Amino acid sequence: AGFTASDARGELGRAVQTLRLSADEARHLAGDVLPLGGAPGQEGRLGLTLRVPLGVVLAITPFNSPVNTVLHKIAPAFAAGNAAILKPSPHTPVTANVLADIFAEAGMPDGFLSVLHCGNDTLLALLDQVMGKYSVDPGRVYLTGLSMGGFGTWRLAADHPEMFAAAAPICGRGNPETASRLTKLPIWAWHGTDDPTVPVKNSIDMVEAIQAAGGTKVRFTSLEYIGHASWQAAYQSADLYAWFDKQRASQNQ
Question: Which of 51, 82, 187, 195 could form a disulfide with 218 if both were Cys (CB 3.0 to 4.6 A apart)?
Fold first, then answer.
């Protein structure tokens, strides 16, 4: 990714932190035991919540910070018990392969992580295959990506809006000329106001273009004083996941 040696070491430190945070979260994801005594007639009773994996997570990652941005996608997926298919950037393919080897050496079951180097056509074919083979709700396929992945999110959403229930591009850039294709798709864009790499105007232009085309399902979160790493706030937001969970492709008519 063009890092200096010191910056690369810093990224590895952040990557270790991502793994540790995900591992710690895995200890709390099994479920909770809740006292129900506050409800009438439930005195002395307990409620048990049980969380189960969603299935297979398809992760598309950009070239910058090729270790930590990959782990931002797949480590939480693993923590929740999901398998993952990783499509890394063609500019940094080796890093993803090395990470896959490390996970395998650590004892990850065969087939739990697959690394795929391909273009968009192959990626869409893979998505169709996964949806046909596994128990995937076709009405609840969500699209998100950061930085270059944010670029890809805008483009893929515009090219195939019917495939997704919702999209969340993070610090990306789209083509305002495609806005008319996105008017029915729920979109939540995020961007840092002080982003020196991809200026926030790129997200603002897309949101305004969609609204001008008649779109009412687009929203935008402007993160004050945040630079390029706006994905940290976005992907730590419980509101984002709750919003995703409410969206269904059947509603995008």
Answer: 187
Mean pLDDT of the chain: 91
- Termini Cα distance of the chain: 41
Phi and psi at 226, nearest 5°, equal -100, 140
Report the alpha-carbon distance of residue 62 to residue 66 in Å, rounded. 7
Q: Residue 130: is its pLDDT beyond 80?
A: yes
Residue with tokens 């929203």: 219
CA angle 102, 104, 108 (to 5 degrees): 120
Q: How many residues does the chain have?
A: 253
Order across the sheet with 142-146: list the strands: 142-146, 166-170, 187-192, 218-223
Helix axes 68-79, 93-105, angle to 10 degrees: 40
**Could you tell me the pLDDT band of residue 166, with boundaries at 50, 70 and 90?**
very high
d(CA 144, CA 155) in angstroms, rounded, equals 11
* CATH architecture of the region 138-253: 3-Layer(aba) Sandwich (3.40)
Q: pTM of this prediction? A: 0.68
Residues 163-189: what's their mean pLDDT? 97
Give strand pairing partners of 188: 219
Q: Which of 204, 197, 196 is nearest to 174 (CA)?
A: 204
Domain positions in the chain are 52-136, 138-253
Give the model's pLDDT for residue 2. 58
